[in-house]
Write a structure and sequence with these properties.
The protein is mainly beta and about 800 residues long. The protein is built from five helices and 60 strands. Helix 3 packs across helix 4 (about 725-745). The longest helix is centred in the C-terminal third of the chain and has 27 residues, at about 675-705. Residues about 715-800 have low confidence and may be disordered.
């Protein structure tokens, strides 16, 4: 019979974690019956896949299916002649709706960005909806709530109001599957701690008591504890008001007490201080000098009744050293008894240099003194640069820097010989505190080599060796490249030499010439930049270029010669245009030259017309100009512009531009359009000043008052016994003189006078009878006007 094969199932859906078996049956006489996975690989028995094969039947078992098991499985049979047949089954695997390790409650700190975790999986991907207080959470209604891509709920700046039960509901529409989980959200508020009074004073042995009070709030209720010197005092109290009472205060009760409130959201501390008064006095404290690496002992003796406690503090960083407690590094230790305290420093370091404070405290006060710890140490070299380069007859300074205490003496040695301070014919020594400079002028190869700097003080001696090496010229630059080549310009770039010869490179020499010419032209780089622009080139010409580095020793070898060709002359590129409205019926076109094609721009051809006209108007602008002024133009009209650049080679492509002329401005805009804000304000002030002058002149003639009248009577009028007619003539003359004075001074002087006398005119001036008429006493007000326009006034006594 012909070989045939079949599988018990054609298509199977299986959820993750389930198991399934498939039976493959063959009709005929098969000699081989095998299964293949979706990747086309032969299935071998394993922990999750089992095979049971008989002569014409094979069973494939898949245990605890995973998503990766999905696909088409093939069963293949072969007979003795090699003929094969196969059958297949489709296995689809899906993930049931599953919530993975969702915690409840989930706690967050007040004010932070809370993310409520709801880890749910299924295939296909589930749809997740959040509910709070039986209402769906949407981003449109709650700006602080946001459902993230991972289905978690994000709450910005979570507060106590956000506490409650949130429901995470997941569904798979394709299978009609739905499930939910309720998550309790708890918001913890950090403790807030306040105290009524932070510092307390008391006197020992007077049966006095002190009560410290802390008031706390938070969620959950914070636990309040009291601490002193890091140790708990009394019993902890849960929330609210906590009080620590100290009765029968003694000397040892003085110091700092800490009120500490803690809960899940954080910790808050407040320090309260109890000062127990005693009047101590430090009677012995001296400066100490120690050698680096040795031990230093500093003694502080204080007296008082009772004896004070003595503490130490390092001024450089404020670190305190307490009796009987070693520092973290174990080098500082304080021992004290009966009013005497000794601070011992083991293995003294340079960082210990400085001021130390000894403080004696008792129940009625305190006393503090300071001492200075000086550290002596062997010389230390500060120079890292020990190799110097020079060449014959070129002086070089070899610098040796030393730090030491006490100051070190320094000298130079060369091959076991000491170089004297006066120097030799080619060496000189320049010395200062902590520094010695050896100036060497090499005259031959013998002057190059090793030089020794020796520093010595009473602590010890140190040596540092310097090498004076013979400098060389730099090696050649390489990787020469030509870029931005135009008709008359070319940019040369290159890599720095591998060796600068021991001394810095001063500049790069770039030589170039036309091919076939013997004369090289030189160009120097700016400082040590590796980019040089060659100018003044001829168009359509082949050039050769080479580069050499130059240092103090001299010029190095040239690089490999490179060739390049400049571009031929061509028409210019279209100009760039930007517009700006001009004065009145004009418009200013800014012209920005682009590539001129190797020859100067001769002129710009500007054509323009309205969008409703066909005929173009033409304006020729010299090539050196950077703008074109179009005028006169029509109001409320759109214009089209075509600009072309021309050189001796020809015309560029045109550049097109459009602009719109606005409506005709009104008369006010026309008058002030050319004036700035300062000019308009100045015109306004001028008009105001003119108005004040006219008002004052009117007051003078009509009411015999005002600034002009006061000036007339005080500076210009004289007492006279002439007749009424003569008096009128005098007043008229005075008016003429004062009006001239009035107009010759600047406006700001008049304004100051006006304000002063206007205010004075509001008072009723004293009057007296003279010849039956009221008159103003001439010497009532004295006004002095100096050359610098300053004003001095004097009010004399006025007789009623």
């Amino acid at each position: 019979a012909a070989l045939q094969i079949s599988i018990s199932l054609n298509k199977v859906e299986l959820s993750v974690g389930e198991s399934k078996f498939f039976i493959c049956t063959a009709i005929g006489e098969p000699v081989r019956l095998e299964w293949y996975n979706p990747q086309g690989e032969l299935i071998m028995p394993s922990k999750r896949m089992s095979l049971h094969t008989e002569t014409s039947r094979s069973r494939l078992i898949i245990y605890n299916a995973i998503v990766q098991d999905a696909g088409i499985y093939r069963c293949e049979a072969a007979d003795a002649s090699g003929h094969t047949v196969e059958a297949s089954v489709v296995l689809e695997i899906y993930q049931r709706l599953t919530f993975r390790d969702v915690q409840s409650p989930q706690e967050f700190r007040h004010g932070e960005m809370a993310e409520v975790v709801c880890d749910v999986i299924s295939s296909p991907v589930p749809t997740v909806v959040w509910y709070y207080q039986d209402r769906e959470i949407t981003e449109e209604h709650h700006s602080r709530f946001r459902v993230l891509a991972n289905n978690n709920l994000q709450i910005q700046q979570v507060t106590k109001v956000d506490e409650g039960v949130y429901r995470c509901e997941a569904s798979v529409e394709a299978r009609g599957e739905i499930d939910f989980v309720d998550i309790a959200v708890v918001v913890n508020v950090p403790p807030v701690l306040s105290v009524f009074q932070q510092s307390f004073n008391s006197t020992a042995d007077y049966q006095e008591s002190v009560t410290f009070t802390c008031i706390t709030s938070g969620s959950p209720d914070p636990m309040v504890t009291w601490h002193r010197y890091g140790l708990a005092q009394g019993w902890p109290i849960l929330g609210g008001r906590s009080m620590l009472t100290i009765r029968n205060i003694r000397q040892a009760d003085g110091g700092t007490y800490t009120c500490r409130a803690t809960n899940k959201a954080g910790l808050e501390e407040r320090e309260l201080f109890l000062k127990v008064f005693v009047q101590p006095h430090i009677i012995q404290l001296k400066n100490v000098t120690a050698v680096e690496g040795s031990a230093a002992m500093i003694s502080c003796v204080a007296e008082g009744e009772p004896l004070p406690d003595i503490s130490w503090r390092r001024a450089s960083d404020g670190q305190a050293f307490v009796d009987g407690v070693k520092s973290q590094d174990g080098r500082f230790e304080v021992r004290g008894r009966h009013g005497k305290s000794v601070l011992t420093i083991s293995g003294v370091k340079l960082s210990d240099l400085g001021r130390f404070d000894c403080e004696a405290l008792s129940r009625i006060g305190g006393h503090q003194k300071s001492m200075f710890l000086d550290i002596e140490y062997i010389p230390k070299f500060l120079t890292n640069y020990t190799i110097y380069y020079s060449w014959e007859e070129n002086p070089v300074n070899i610098s040796c820097y030393v730090m030491s205490n006490p100051p070190a003496t320094m000298l130079w040695r060369r091959e076991r010989f000491t170089i004297s301070a006066e120097g030799t014919f080619n060496t000189r020594v320049h010395s200062a505190e902590g520094k010695s400079v050896l100036e060497v002028t090499p005259m031959s190869d013998r002057d190059f080599g090793r030089y020794n700097c020796t520093a010595r003080n009473n602590i010890g001696v140190r040596y540092q060796e310097f090498i004076l090496a013979q400098a060389d010229v730099p090696s050649n630059p390489y990787s020469v490249r030509l870029s931005a080549v135009s008709q008359r310009l070319a940019t040369v770039t290159f890599m720095k030499p591998d060796s600068h010869g021991g001394v810095p490179i001063s500049y790069y020499l770039v030589q170039y010439k036309e091919v076939g010419s013997l004369d090289w032209r030189d160009a120097k780089s700016h400082s040590v930049q590796t980019t040089v622009v060659l100018t003044g080139l001829e168009p359509n010409t082949t050039y050769e270029v080479r580069i050499a580095a130059v240092n103090g020793k001299g010029q190095g070898e040239f690089s490999r010669t490179e060739s390049f060709q400049t571009l031929p002359i061509r028409e210019p590129s279209p100009p760039a245009v930007h517009g700006q409205r001009g004065m009145g019926k004009a418009y200013r076109l800014g012209l920005i030259k682009q590539d001129d094609g190797g020859m100067p721009i001769v002129e710009y051809i500007v054509k323009y017309k309205t969008d409703k006209e066909e005929q173009w108007m033409t304006k020729l602008v010299p090539g050196a100009n950077d703008f074109a002024m179009l005028q006169p133009l029509q109001w409320n009209t759109r214009y089209e512009v075509e600009i072309t650049a021309r050189n001796v080679k020809g015309l560029s492509e045109p550049t097109f531009y459009q602009f719109f002329m606005p409506q005709k401005p009104d008369i006010t805009e026309s008058l002030f359009s050319g004036l700035g804000l300062g000019a308009v304000v100045g015109l306004g002030l001028g008009a105001l000043l003119l108005l004040l002058v006219l008002v004052d002149i009117s007051c003078f003639f009509l009411r015999h008052c005002g600034l002009l009248m006061c000036i007339t009577r005080t500076l210009c009028s004289k007492k006279t016994t002439t007749s009424g007619k003569g008096k009128d003539m005098e007043e008229g003359k005075a008016l003429y003189i004062c009006f001239d004075f009035y107009t010759m001074h600047n406006s700001h002087l008049f304004f100051l006078l006006f304000v002063f006398l206007f205010c004075s005119s509001n008072r009723k001036l004293p009057l007296k009878e003279e010849n039956g008429k009221e008159s103003l006493k001439p010497d009532t007000i004295e006004i002095k006007v100096h050359s610098d326009n300053s004003i001095h006034t004097k009010l004399d006594d006025i007789k009623e």
